[in-house]
Amino acid sequence: MLGGAAKAKDRAYRVIHNFRGWRQGDGCEAVGVPAAAKNGDLYGVTNSCGAYEYDGIVFKLTAPSTRNGVWRESILYNFPGGSGGGGPESLVLGADGNLYGNSTQTIFQLKRPASHNGVWKYTTLYTLNQNSDGAAIQGNLVFDAAGNLYGAAALGGDPSCLQGGCGTVFELQRPTQKGGHWVYSVLYTFTGQPDAAEPHAGVTFDQKGNLYGTTYAGGAFDWGAVYRLGHPTKEGQAWTETVLYSFDPSNDDIIRPEGPVTIDQSGNLYGTTVSGGDLNCQGGFGCGVVFELSPQQGGTWTYANLYSFQGGNDGLVPSGYIVIDGKGSLYSTTQLGGGGSNAGIAFKLSPPVQQGDPWTETVLHSFKAPIDSGDNGGLIWGKWGDLYGVTYLGGSKGCQREGCGTVFELQP
Asked: Tell me: the pLDDT tens digits for 199-249?
């Protein structure tokens, strides 16, 4: 079942695709955030279903010619498991027109066919050894200007750190000659407290080529951290890691970041934590916050809590990708909370008109089971300047008990 035109009273939000599950030849359990092409088409993955029942798909949603028209799904690849891959977690679109993604252990390429009706070709680019390479890739991969891929693994690396390792940041370098192999290298191995540990999200580039991210553990207080990997100034030098901020529950009541950071044009970082903030929320653990880190002269960074979620209608447990508009407003999703069904929300956080006033949250949509619900991965900008995302559950009736997931559109 494809999404049709939205009702006049709810034009700001609509489901543009309901996944139907393997019995209907479709995927289920959409994950990550979709990738938007220049023409507005969306690409993404589901973690399960497909032709082989359990291993997922790569899908394309072709954008309609009019804003409220019908999006049409094409399945580009059914993961068969084994050497053909399976259980994808994220997907990105390369400048070469090819698609790149990962499961928890494997990085793959899906090569665009030469003809319109041709078949996309799957290739495994690299499989992590789960030891020194790292293990459990989390979050989206990102490209540098040369088309090399970067990401983070939550575990592995140093075997003496937290038994299973504290994770790594890695690069997968594009071949320099046609037919050559991609080359994997670990840029940094986390060592645990007081260093960062367990990156549960991907990395983000700044304009100078430095990488930024968050970790779920580590830092000075072992409640998570924000880190930077400084790009080498000379070829052959190592990347330099710096912990920019350690979350301190005794000081700011903010703990456990699971999402990535987003960088504005001034170099400020924005991110979320899944707990902390208002400790009257969620049994004393807090419902999470949106935070800002601002660079200062001398290399220090200033932390600010922009918004503490209260639970209920305004959402709780934020961990998705954040995007920014031209006025500095932030957009993302939460995993829980919302209007009655506790399936999460999509929200906008607007900066104050006057300095010193609080930021203002606006709930753009409350996800409601079984229509759309569960494990919302954040938002991306797409065609017509609209926002797009996926839900892990919800959607078509008759597809699993809680639905197979959706792709949605928001007109902010």
From this structure: 999 999 999 999 999 999 999 999 999 999 999 988 889 999 999 999 988
The predicted-structure confidence for 144-155, as pLDDT tens digits, reads as follows 999 999 999 999
Closest CA to 31 of 102, 106, 100: 102
Are 377 and 401 within 8 A, CB to CB? no
Alpha carbons 94 and 80: distance in angstroms, whole number: 23
Strand arrangement, sheet containing 240-246: 204-205, 211-215, 225-230, 240-246
Query: 104: closest CA among 140, 138, 53?
Result: 138
DSSP 373: B
Tokens of 22: 């393997």
Is residue 147 within 8 Å of 174, Cβ to Cβ? yes
Bin 403: left if φ > 0, else alpha if -120 < ψ < 50, else beta: left
Q: Which one, of 223, 344, 333, lies nearest residue 285 by Cα?
A: 223
**Burial code of 320-332, b = ≥16 C-beta within 10 A, e = fewer?**
bbbbbeeeebbbb
**Tokens in use for 112?**
């665009």
Q: Answer yes or no: are the C-beta atoms of 364 and 343 closer than 8 Å.
A: no
What is the Cα–Cα distance from 123 to 136, expressed in whole angstroms?
A: 20
Domains of the chain: 8-410 (2.130.10.10)
**Quick check: pTM over 0.90?**
yes
Among residues 148, 131, 127, the alpha carbon closest in space to that of 203 is found at 148
More confident call, 189 vs 22: 189
Cβ pair 128, 105 in contact under 8 A:
yes
Sheet holding 27-36, edge to edge: 27-36, 42-49, 57-62, 72-78
Residues in a beta bridge with 110? 99, 122
Instruction: Give how far Cα 158 sits from Cα of 181, 188, 223, Å.
Output: 26, 10, 19
- Alpha-carbon dihedral sign for residues 249, 191, 125, 54: negative
Asked whether 148 and 187 are in contact (CB, 8 A), the reply is: no
SS (H, E, C) 135-156: EEEEEEEEECCCCCEEEEEEEC
Phi, psi of 138 (to 5 degrees): -125, 140
**DSSP bridge partners of 137:** 153
Q: How many residues does the chain have?
A: 412
Coil/strand/helix, residue 219: coil
